[in-house]
Every structure is written in C-alpha cells, then in structure tokens.
Amino acid sequence: MLVNPAAGQRAATGRGLQVAQHLRDAGARVTVTHTQSADHGCQVATEAAGRGNIVVAVGGDGTVGSLAGAVVATGATLGLVPVGRGNDFARQLGIPNDLAAVADLLLTGSVRSVDVIDVRGQIVVGSVYAGIDSLTSALVNRVHRLPTRLQYPVAAVWAIATHRATDYRIVIDGMAQSIDAHTVIVANSGYYGSGMHVAPSAQLDDGLLDIVIFSAAGRLRLLKALRRVYSGTHLQLPEVTVQTGRAVAIDAAGSVEAYADGDRIGPLPVGARVRPGALNVIAPSPRTG
Questions:
Q1: In terms of pLDDT, which residue wins out, 247 or 216?
Q2: What is the pTM of this model?
Q3: How do residues 190-217 score in pLDDT, each as one tens digit?
Q4: What GO molecular-function term can you cite, just one (predicted)?
Q5: CA of 278: how far to CAs of 116, 164, 248, in Å?
Q6: For residues 109 and 223, what is the distance between their CA atoms, to the nearest angstrom?
Q7: Which domains are delineated in the chain?
Q8: Are strands 127-131 and 175-187 parallel, antiparallel or unpaired?
C-alpha cells in the first residue's frame, strides 16, 4: 500500500491506515509505505509488483497515474483508495468512498483490464488536455486553501476570465484538422476536474479515446458550458464536439501547455495513443445494459 501523504489535503495517511487495518483484520498481509516523491513511489511499486504483490494507491488521480506506469510495465494489479482532490478515475470505475467498502472491494473485487493513454511513454489513466483546462490545472494549486469542492470551479472561472481561443491543429488517426478552440481534451475516462463529466460516452475498455473540443466562443457561453459539464449536458451546445480515435496529436499556434490528470506534461505539440486493456485494476464489475 503506497500512501501519498500530501493527497486529499493530507487526509491520505489516516485513511490509508484505516483501510490497512480493515485488510489486516480480514487476514491480509499489508505493507504501508509513504511515498517521498513520484519516482520513489514508482520504484517501490515496481519492486512490490515484481514480488507478485498487489499495488494499492492511496491518493488522488496524480498518485494513481504515477503508479499506474509501474503496474502496466510489470503486468501487476492496481488497487485504489481514493483520497485525493479529484478521484475521477475511481469515480469512473465506481469505486466507493466508504473505507470499509473500499477494503471489502480490495479483498473480494474482480480484476478489470482497462485502457490507458500513453503520452511520450508516460502512462495516463484519465485525460490529457490543453487550453483552458491546462490553465485551470495550473491555477488549482494557487487556490489550495479553498475547500476541495470549490478548487476546480473557482480555478475554471478564473481561467475562463483570462483565456483566449487558440488555433489548434489536431490529428486523429492520421486525419488532420485545424480549429479555433478554447480547449482540447483527450479522454480515456469520462470524468475530470473533481466530478466534471466531460466525456460521458468514454469507456475504459473500448480501445478508444474521446476527443472533446470546445470551439471558440464568448465567455458567457463558456460559463454556460462549465455549469453543464458536471451533468454531461454540455455536449448539447453547438460549440462542443466529440470525436473518437486511437492516436491523437495536438499542436497550437503560440505557447500552450499540456496537462494530464492535473499534472504538467509540457508544451505542445503532444501525442497521445490508447493502450487497450494495459492496466489491471481491482474494481466493481462494469454495468451492463
């Protein structure tokens, strides 16, 4: 069990230890390690996976993403204890927040093989984005003293107030297009930004990425889209389009940063491709029908 002590406004340690105790009470062997950095977490995860252990990430989407690479590389299995700001990958998987329920899931849940995004060799479980959303991610760290539920909305409004549309060149499975847009999201998971249902049709096991594009629009229209993104009804707006593909390249006129699951990737251009079924994760069985 790898605990990011900085996750969830530093709630991760206590919640992780509670889950560990539930698991031990049920007869499981549990080793708890507090990660000192992303590199340290990956090293410990790789070593644990090499011994045949299940790697349990205690943290948010950033923690999950940083450990997923090691799990994918070794073919091991990942478990989640969602205690971060967003927990959007856990939300997509249907993982509960109740600690006893999480422990029970880790003990009895099924193992699903789900897709991931590969960006320059880095594994991303949720989404890659550029534009207003990358600016929002950068701003979230400046409003960390606000309650968690307010951090993303406040940062998003701030970003909308200052951002200008950019000319993007997007290549999806070899087909190029140019568009004046505010943001481009390449989604593996349907959720981001602490519960925003940005890509409602995204599935974790379909071998496809959903590319959501917010075309150039006035700030009032962007605020309207922001209000509707939690329910997924922003897709009804004419300036929002969705395409699917397996490999995506994004470039832009001017300097635009790309982010993935809240963490900076670097300046555009950036390429992303789906790796179908690459990650084994303990989760509830997917809903059918």
A1: 247
A2: 0.90
A3: 998 888 899 999 999 999 999 999 998 8
A4: ATP binding
A5: 6, 37, 18
A6: 40
A7: 2-108 (3.40.50.10330), 127-274 (2.60.200.40)
A8: antiparallel
